[in-house]
Amino acid sequence: MKVQRLAFISSALLCALLLVSCNKSSKPAAENPTGPEVKRYPLKGKVVSLDVKIGEANVDAEAIPGFMDAMVMPYKVKDPGQFAQLAVGDAITADVVVQGDSYWLENVKITKASGAAPPKPAAALHIPAPGEAVPDFQLINQNGKHIFLKQYRGKTLLVTFIYTRCPFPDFCPRVSHEFAEVNSQLEATRDLYGSTHLLSISFDPKHDTPKVLRDYGFACAASKKPTLFKHWEFAVSPASQLPALANFFGLTYIEEGGLITHSLSTAVIGPDGRIFKWYHGNEWQASDLLKDASDSVNRKAGTAHGASERVLG
Length: 313
Fold this sequence. Notes:
By secondary structure, the chain is α+β, with helices and mostly antiparallel strands. The chain has 8 helices and 14 strands.
């Protein structure tokens, strides 16, 4: 009996020791992260624009050894409090945290404030909404002629905002390149070409004179065809109307040291003079606008067809 009892106790102790051993060996495995390795890189740059809706800052950063060359890139700011302190034009330092395909900023510090007001709360920013009527803003085009947005009623109007001196490759140059592609593709589709119009609007009235805009337009289109401006115009807003124009289209800008730090805004305005689609960044491509233009034109045709059927009926 004693032998059996000792054997039982020995077995129980052995099981307990094995259980403790298993627990000890499995605990570190549970504590170790199973995701991709986290890497950190020091960033130094300047805030180009802020997207308060998603807590993202576009930063013109110096080269980051081991990560990327000098360029403008959008970064999520992990700490909402740090994001709230930023303003367009601020010089900053931060840590770029990279994990797998994700990256964001931490430890953001302002090394030189721009003096601009912090971004307005998202609720205070005007976001062009589908169906919203577009005011009849006045502009001056590449020929020095006064034009009005209302005169394009009946056509789908593609509008984007640029300034000709913009040095950031992912901003105005990229947008103008995509507009050139849109214009080229529309030329190959005669029906759609006649039902659309392109308009690149400058927010730099001090520099972008009609002659400057004309030269810029020829350079963007890589052509000096006199018919270019019949379908794709380049215009500038008078300084007195620029704040209202920018506010309606959700455009932010600030001039500093001869450069303008700004956000991006591209709109598709339907033949009825109302917003059909609006893009707040540079993530759209020519194919997106071509589809929007086609959908807008077809919607107008469908509406007209429905109205005629009601009359005939």
